[in-house]
Specification:
alpha+beta, single chain, binds zinc ion, three-stranded mixed sheet
């Protein structure tokens, strides 16, 4: 299990994106990349504050009627959330109180750039 302190996590987020709505995470089950901007576009909430609790925790597919994760990721979102009984996450953020919070992994900076560029060319 990969762990990051909250401070490390926030620094990594800031290094990846200049705007918090543009930070890109990867669902551990389907492998798709997703951001708050996409959650808002998918109808999960009206603004960052409304989708923050889903970001990096519930796959965007939950808001688009996606199926359960497939055995082999096919590039489409799934309906996974880290709140279930099965522990499938690969990363935890450790807060100063010592608690471990499951979280989707951050995309690498290069992956995030490519993802944002692809989105900019589509309607979402
Ligand atoms: Zn997923």
């Amino acid at each position: 299990m990969k762990t990051m302190t909250l401070q490390e996590f926030q620094a990594a987020c800031q290094a990846q994106a200049s705007n918090r709505e543009q930070i890109v995470f990867r669902c551990p089950m389907c492998g798709t990349m997703q951001s708050a901007q996409q959650l808002i576009a998918a109808g999960a909430g009206a603004d960052f504050g409304a989708v923050e609790r889903y970001l990096g925790f519930s796959c965007i597919g939950r808001f688009t009627g996606a199926e359960s994760p497939r055995r082999d990721p096919d590039g489409r979102p799934c309906n996974w959330t880290l709140g279930g009984l099965l522990q499938t996450h690969r990363m935890e953020v450790v807060t100063t109180d010592g608690k471990h919070h499951p979280h989707f992994e951050l995309a690498t900076n290069v992956e995030a750039e490519m993802h944002r560029a692809a989105l900019a060319g589509s309607s979402i």
